[in-house]
Specification:
With 364 residues, the chain is of the alpha+beta class. It has ten helices and twelve strands. It is elongated and about 80 Å long.
């Protein structure tokens, strides 16, 4: 199940990502010399009539399109290559930028498409009693809210000055921020009161034993009624886009917390954990697995847009600098930047893979 889930997840997502690069490149007349799913030694392949070598390679952890004029699979420009028609470096700057951006944009569109389909088929989950859901019905043992002076019957109306209208708003404002100091505004007997507290760091465990660190203040809603409302396709696409934006903001918050030390780098996962999660979601059925595919596709888009040399975002950063300076960066600076980017990516992969191994094995 793990192997099947991993291949069904990453195989199509890598393929559509690289097809985005390839098709836009073909549209602009840039010749692709290699289209590879996976890295390393070629397992199987064929050369088409356009001279492109289509490869299936040994390591299924990514893929690449090597255009004419590229020095290597990371699309580092070859300073000694002749700039000529059909080469990547011979294309106009805006065309190169669109070719590079096409990969992560395709992953983003896949995520939006999957979520829009799920919203159309199954509907959107909504809370039908929003006001009652923000009223405190009970406290957990050791509740930070109760310790701060809140009482059963208080209705939360704002957190850190941001209005909340339903229980999901409360969860979003607290869950992602363990250890954060909060100012909660609540109504009691028609009057507003404010309570200062610190969100506890709690460990949440799913049905497969996977754990995550979340923020908690130890409250339960007085009542919580949930229903699914059908969403027309014309409304599902904007809703899916907004959902992707919300998830992306969560990713940015998570990275910022790791950089600042609010979260441990051990919370980052790599290919081993992706394989584990994909198998677990596949075992639950097509709908949870489809949502997980959308989530990983969005992750691929987000990661590839980061301005790290050797990733798509790094190329785009160089093109932005070239547009501002009206000339490309020097070959020596470009080479060293890409070397740094490749080393950074490799070190990152080692770290997250080690996290996976130590987390999954008994000594972890």
């Amino acid at each position: 199940m793990y192997v099947a889930g991993f291949l069904l997840l990453l195989g199509p997502l890598i393929t559509v990502h690289e097809l985005g690069h390839y098709l836009v490149g073909r549209w602009f007349g840039v010749r692709a010399e290699v289209f590879s799913i996976g890295f390393g030694k070629e397992i199987a392949g064929r050369t088409d009539r356009h001279g492109t070598r289509w490869r299936l390679s040994l390591l299924p952890l990514g893929g690449y399109v090597q255009f004419k004029g590229d020095m290597n699979p990371a699309s580092v420009p070859d300073p000694e290559a002749v700039v000529e028609p059909g080469s990547f470096q011979g294309a106009a700057l805006w065309k190169r930028a669109l070719i590079v951006a096409a990969g992560p944009v395709t992953n983003l569109l896949v995520a939006i498409g999957i979520l829009a389909a799920l919203f159309t088929i199954y509907g959107q989950q909504v809370i039908t009693n929003p006001e009652a859901s923000t009223e405190i019905g009970a406290f957990a043992e050791g509740s930070a809210a109760e310790a701060a002076g809140m009482e059963v019957g208080d209705r939360i109306v704002a957190i850190d000055g941001e209005a909340v209208t339903e229980f999901n708003d409360i969860v979003r404002a607290i869950e992602l921020y363990p250890g954060r100091d909060l100012i909660i505004t609540a109504l009691r007997d028609g009057r507003e009161r404010t309570f200062a507290m610190t969100a506890a760091r709690a460990t949440r465990e799913d049905g497969f034993g996977n754990t995550s660190v979340v923020g908690r203040i130890g409250i339960a809603p007085a009542a919580l009624e949930v229903a699914f409302q059908r969403v027309p396709l014309i409304e599902a696409i904007p809703l899916a886009t907004a959902t992707c934006w919300d998830i992306t903001k969560m990713m940015v918050t998570g990275i910022r917390q790791i950089v600042t030390g609010e979260r441990s780098i051990k919370e980052l996962g790599g290919p081993v954990k992706i394989a584990k999660y994909s198998g677990e979601q596949l075992s639950l059925g097509i709908t949870p697995f489809a949502f997980f595919v959308a989530l990983i596709s969005l992750n691929l888009a987000f990661i590839n847009f980061l301005p790290i040399p050797a990733l798509d975002g790094g190329h785009l950063a160089f093109y932005a600098a070239e547009a501002i300076r009206r000339k490309p960066a020097g070959p020596e600076a470009t080479e060293w930047a890409y070397r740094f980017g490749i080393v950074f990516v490799l070190v990152f992969m080692v770290v997250v893979t080690w996290n996976d191994i130590t987390d999954l094995l008994p000594f972890g």
